[in-house]
């Protein structure tokens, strides 16, 4: 069982990172092999809609996303952790997500070669916002929920938490437990 954590915050050691580590600890505790990617340390351009991927499912952009595609395919579950930036996900997370485009054909069906690995893949989402009202993160939840529904992925859970200063979330035991449990769930086949 492989669980991949994807950090969408540029603040390494920040709130999203702390909760992602909790989730990965939960997954590891449940017996999974875990891996973590810091998008802010990767060079990932946005999708160019060049359509070159439509035939073979191979993205034409030669950047760090090329090393991420195999990780996405091989993971049994992927947990994304991202803060709200202006009522949306960060640029790092959006660029990564848009590049999933290469995994689909022109009709937005999974490329045949990828479908066996992607079918029902478990997806988790952790969001952080400065606003005390965690519903501020709902546009990000909406984006992941719809992407999963549209593509046949399985959104296993969403953790929404509020924190502002770097590392502030470390004092929120309830949010840490929620993230840990999400990781545990990611490591378990239903
Ligand atoms: C550029 C920028 C935009 C932000 N926009 C919002 C926002 O629209 N709503 C909100 O509640 N918090 C907003 N925040 C606050 C962050 O979501 C919050 O500080 C979060 O805890 C950061 O998580 P991190 O430590 O993982 O980076 C913004 C922060 C930055 C730097």
Which features does this protein show?
Rossmann fold, single chain, 5 strands, alpha/beta, 19% strand
Q: Strands, helices and their partners?
A:
Elements lengths: L1 E6 L7 H15 L3 E6 L14 H4 L8 H10 L2 E7 L7 H8 L16 H4 L3 E8 L8 H14 L2 E9 L10 H14 L4
Parallel strand pairs: 1-2, 1-3, 3-4, 4-5
Helix pairs in contact: 1-7
The protein binds flavin mononucleotide.
Structure description:
- The protein is an alpha/beta fold.
- It has one domain: Flavodoxin domain (Rossmann fold, 3-Layer(aba) Sandwich), CATH 3.40.50.360.
- It has 7 helices and 5 strands; from the N terminus they run E-H-E-H-H-E-H-H-E-H-E-H.
- Helix 6 links the parallel strand 4 and strand 5.
- Helix 1 packs across helix 7.
- The model has no long low-confidence stretch (mean pLDDT 97).
- The structure holds flavin mononucleotide.
- Flavin mononucleotide binds next to helix 1 and strand 4.
Strand content is 15-25%
Ligand kinds:
flavin mononucleotide
Q: So, the CATH homologous superfamily?
A: Flavodoxin domain
Helix content: 25-40%
Q: In DSSP terms, counting alpha (H) and pi (I) runs of 4 or more, how many helices?
A: 7
CATH class: Alpha Beta
Q: Pairing-aware structural class of the strands and helices?
A: alpha/beta
Number of strands: 5
Helix/strand order, N-terminal first: EHEHHEHHEHEH
Q: What ranges have pLDDT less than 50 throughout 5 or more consecutive residues?
A: none
CATH architecture classification name:
3-Layer(aba) Sandwich
Q: Sum up the overall morphology in one term.
A: globular
The name of the CATH topology is Rossmann fold
Strand order of the largest sheet: 2-1-3-4-5
Number of domains: 1
């Amino acid at each position: 069982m492989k669980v991949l954590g994807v950090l969408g915050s540029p603040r390494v050691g920040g709130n999203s990172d702390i909760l992602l580590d909790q989730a990965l600890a939960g997954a590891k505790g449940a017996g999974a092999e875990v891996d973590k990617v810091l998008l802010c340390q990767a060079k990932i351009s946005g999708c160019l809609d060049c359509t070159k991927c439509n035939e073979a499912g191979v993205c034409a952009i030669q950047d760090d996303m090329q090393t991420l595609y195999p990780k996405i395919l091989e993971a049994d579950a992927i947990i994304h952790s991202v803060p709200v930036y202006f009522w949306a996900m960060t640029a790092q997370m959006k660029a990564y997500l848009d590049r999933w485009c290469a995994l689909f054909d022109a009709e937005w069906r999974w490329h045949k070669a990828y479908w066996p690995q992607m079918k029902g893949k478990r997806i988790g989402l952790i969001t952080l916002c400065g606003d005390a009202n965690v519903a501020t993160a709902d546009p990000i939840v909406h984006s992941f929920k719809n992407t999963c529904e549209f593509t046949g992925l399985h959104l296993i859970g969403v953790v929404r938490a509020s924190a502002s200063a770097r590392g502030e979330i470390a004092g929120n035991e309830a949010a840490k437990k929620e993230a840990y449990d999400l990781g545990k769930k990611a490591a378990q086949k239903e």
